[in-house]
Structure formats: structure tokens, C-alpha cells
Amino acid sequence: xxxxxxxxxxADLDKMKDALTEYAAAxxxxxxFHPFLSGETLLTDYRPFLYAVVFLxxxxxxxxxxEVAEKIRATDDNALLVFLTDSDECQADAIHWxxxxxxxxxxxxxxxxxxxxxxxxIQSQREESRFSFSSDRKDVALLYxxxxxxxADRNYLIVRDKGGTEYRARMTFSSVAEKxxxxxxxxxxxxxxxxxxxxxxxxxxxxxxxxxxxxxxxxIRNAKRLTQIWRNYLFLQTRNxx
Length: 242
Description:
Layout: E1 2-6, H1 10-27, E2 32-36, H2 39-44, E3 53-57, H3 65-73, E4 80-85, H4 91-96, E5 101-104, H5 110-128, E6 130-135, E7 138-143, E8 147-153, E9 156-161, E10 166-169, H6 174-180, E11 186-190, E12 193-196, E13 200-203, E14 207-210, E15 215-217, H7 223-240
Parallel strand pairs: 1-2, 1-3, 3-4, 4-5
Antiparallel strand pairs: 6-7, 8-9, 8-12, 9-10, 11-12, 13-14, 14-15
């Protein structure tokens, strides 16, 4: 697992590296640690999926951790952001940028080990959850987290990923719906239409709006229930990140 840490204090970077080295040894896993003394240095060569986790000190010379998070989120919705600080006064800002956790440095190393345990559980789930199919005579395997929505089209299934690519697979909706709907991220919003709740931004009485700006018709009869399910999902996600 590639992990980045941004902190303008070399002593804290060293302390973090030692803690992660001990964690990896104790849990029989591999961690590649990438330290940065400034947010600007991290962003110089940053690209989505380069790091599974980015630890950000909030108060730094130059760009703050919050400003670095804003830049990261402009291109990468998937990296887990963990803020590190000596004060809890910026928690609201951290939540705004979909922080996975917020750790006080005074709570090291116990808090760090706890968050790493949770992160490895998430990574295991992500690796196991893949949707495989054939489209245009090519094999495709998407992580569940990469799927924006699926909809039935006669004997085909239209799958759109978070990058906007659409795939047309010769398979029935019913053959995949039961498996996908076991995952809390997915919700059937109308007959033959499943969305990933991670990418939903709003529900109205007639449509479900997604982060890429697209919208899908919803079951009018179930609109209120669908909206409540989405709100409950957001609430639980927020609780799981604190």
C-alpha cells in the first residue's frame, strides 16, 4: 500500500514512518511510505490512485493541509485523506473535503494504528468487490466504487463508470442486480436502474442527480423512500468516518 504523508516538521515525518514500519511488521503487511515536507511538493507529481492514503498536517508553512485536500479532491475522489494536527479546531473543514479521519498528534501511535486497521479493512473490501463483464469483445473489470450507475436496455446492460465511459454488456439486469444490491452503496431507483449512492448529489420527486451532472428518472411512487435511504446512507458514512 502506498501512503503519503505531508508535514513541514521532519521529526513528525520520522515519527510517522517509525509508527507505520512497526504497524507493517506487526501485521505482516507491506507499506510504502512517501514523505513530503510541503503540500506543494506532493502536488507537483500527484495523480489519482497514486496513493491509497494521504496523511495531511493541517498547519504548515505554505499551503495548509485543508488547501492541499481541496486540490486533491479536484481530481481524486478515492484517496483516503487523514488529517493530522495538534488542535481539533478545523474538523468542520476536514469533513467538508470528505476526510476519512482526523487524528490529534498527541494520540499517536494508538490512534494511528486504529485508523490503519480500518483502512486495511476498506482496502480488502475494495479489492474483493469487482464487477466483471464483456463489452465490445473486451473483458472489463470495474471496482464497485468505480461504477456510477447501471440500467437495463432490453437484453443488454448499460454500465457507466465514474470517468464517464459507458459499456454495453450482453447480460440481463436481473443476473447482476441481486449481487450488487447486497452492497449498501447501490440502490435501485426505478425498474431496471441502479445507482451508486457515493455519486448521488440530490433526489427530487422525479430524478436522481449524480456528481457528473447526469440525472436518472426515479420511481415517483417511491421518491420519498429513496430520498430517505440516500440521506441515511450519507449519515452513516459520516459517522463511520469519525
